[in-house]
Amino acid sequence: MNAERLRLGRIYKLCRADEWTAAVACGNYTGSADDARDGFIHFSTGAQLAQTARRHFAGRTDLVLVAFDAASLGPELKWEQSRAGELFPHLHAVLPAAKALWVKPIELDAAGAPVVPEGVT
To answer: Which superfamily, per CATH, for 3-105?
Structure first.
């Protein structure tokens, strides 16, 4: 995928609803336990989101999906290789909650997999 296209696109964060509520209340999202362990906040592109949801969030009923404009996150957003050498967006900074474009609750399908909302690209 073209690096410039990645930099300018929309990216997404799946997280627990209570984590995002706390982020909005204090103004910043500092990340999940997994983010803290890895030293950055994990995001996915629209194309990566379904696999990320199934792999890391199956069976979770308390999730929200938060959308961001990648370019708005500045130079602390790095595109780094992850599974199968694919580039994933990682934020090496605190995330200002006000940068969110929208927040949507995530439902599960009959098998317990998170369902990515229509229109997420």
So the answer is: Protein of unknown function DUF952 (3.20.170.20)
